[in-house]
Amino acid sequence: MIKYKKVSREIAQKPRKCDGATLKCDKTIFRRVKNMEKVYIGIDFGGTSVKGGIVTADGKILYKSSVPTDAKEGVKKVISNIVKLIRDLEAHNANGEIQGIGIGIPGLIDAESGVVVVAGNLYWSDVHIVDELHKHFDYPIKITNDANAAALGEAKFGSGKSYKTSVFVTLGTGIGGGIIIDGKLYEGNKSAGGEIGHMIIHPHGEQCTCGNKGCWETYGSATAIIRETRRAMQAHKDSEMWKVGGLENVDGKTAFDYADVDEYAKQVVDEYIDNLAVGLINIANIFRPEVIIIGGGVANQGDSLILPLREQVKGGLFARSSGPSVGIIFASLKSAGIVGAAALNM
Fold first, then answer.
1. Largest CA distance in the chain
2. How far is the C-alpha of 12 from the C-alpha of 277, rounded, in Å?
3. Are strands 108-110 and 115-119 parallel, antiparallel or unpaired?
4. Contacts from 111-120 at CB under 8 Å and sequence distance 24+?
5. CA triplet 320, 326, 330: central angle to 5 degrees?
6. Cβ distance 338 to 105 under 8 Å?
C-alpha cells in the first residue's frame, strides 16, 4: 500500500492511495509528486499589513500577497486575516509541495512553544498563534521575532550568504537585529535574546519605550535622528534644514541631505554616526562576526553612512588588526522577512 501526502490542489484535494489494482491509474500522480519542487510559506507581520509569500528552497519568491493586520480589532480578527492570506498562497501554489509555514512577528516570542508572549504593536499577550493556526492547517508551523526572520533571510539568501557568522541590524522606528552563528539563528533563552537595540550605550540617557534609559535605539534609530534634527532646527532658526518647510516634514534623511551645506545638519549626522558606531563596536567585540549587515530606511544613505561606520568599527575592535576583521555591509533583500520566515522550515 502506497500513501500519498497532501499535495497541490491542482493535483489532489485529498491524500491519495494506490494498491496493485489501481497503481497504474495513479502512476502519473506519483511521478508528479516525486518531481514537485519543495516550497515554503513565509509570513512577515507589520503594523498595518501582514505579507506572505511562496518561497523556493533557494530563496526565490514565486508569489506574494498581503492582508491588513487589523490589530486593533483583536486577536481573532488578525488570525482570521492570516488564515485568508495562507489560503490565498495555497491557491496560487501551482507546482510546489508546501513543507511548512514560518512567521516573523514583532515582539517577544517563545519559538519553542509557539507563543507570542507580548507584542505591543499588535496589542497581544500570551497568544498561542501556532495552536490557533493548526486548527486550520496541518503543515509544520514555526515562529520567530520579525528581526530574527530578516536576519535569517539575509544570512541564507542575501548579503550574508557567503558568511557563517553574521549579525543583522535594521535601523527603523527602533533598532532590531538578529544573530547568526555557524549558519544558525541564535535566539537565546526562550527565544528572548538578540534585542540588540536595547543595549544601553548612555546610562541615564534618552528615555526608551522599553522602560530603560539610554538604549541604543534611542540614539541610532531613524526615530532618533529625526528627533535630533528637529532639536537642531529649533535651536538654530538660521539652519538650512528649515527649507524642508517645517518640523513635521523632517524625516530620517533630512540631516544627511543638508550635511554638506549646513553645520548644524553635519553635527546631527556626525553625532548620529558616533552613537551608531558605539553599538556596532559592542556587537563586533561581543560576537566577532564576519560581517554586520545593516538594513532599514537609514541604510539608504549609502557611503555617507557606511564609510565612517567602517572606520570607527575598525578602530574600536579589540586587538585591532591583530584579530579577525568585521565587515560592515548593507542588506540586499527587499523581502528578507518573508524569505527568512520561510527558511525556518528549511
1. 88
2. 55
3. antiparallel
4. 111/142, 111/143, 111/144, 111/187, 111/191, 112/190, 112/191, 114/141, 114/142, 114/143, 116/143, 117/192, 120/209
5. 145
6. no
This prediction has a pTM of: 0.88
Class of the CATH-defined domain 159-330:
alpha beta
What average pLDDT does range 237-248 have in this prediction?
Answer: 97
The C-alpha cell at 249 is 516634514
Q: What are phi and psi of 108, to 5 degrees?
A: -90, 120
Reading phi first (left if > 0) and then psi (alpha if -120 to 50, else beta), residue 62 is in alpha
Q: For 284, which DSSP code?
A: H
CATH architecture of 36-145: 2-Layer Sandwich (3.30)
Q: Does residue 4 register a pLDDT over 80?
A: no
Average pLDDT over residues 136-151: 97
How far apart are alpha carbons 26 and 18 in whole angstroms?
7
pLDDT recorded at residue 34: 54
pLDDT tier for residue 30 given thresholds of 50, 70 and 90? very low
Alpha carbon 289 to chain centroid, angstroms? 18
Q: What is the dihedral of CA 214, 126, 173, 278, to 10 degrees?
A: 40
Give residue-wise pLDDT tens across range 245-295: 999 999 999 999 999 999 999 999 999 999 999 999 999 999 999 999 999
- C-alpha span between 37 and 228 (Å, rounded): 50
Assess whether the region 36-145 and the region 159-330 belong to the same CATH fold.
Answer: yes
> What digits encode the pLDDT tens for the residues 188-210?
999 999 999 999 999 999 999 99
Give dist(CA 171, CA 58) in Å, integer: 26
Tell me the domain boundaries of the chain: 36-145, 159-330
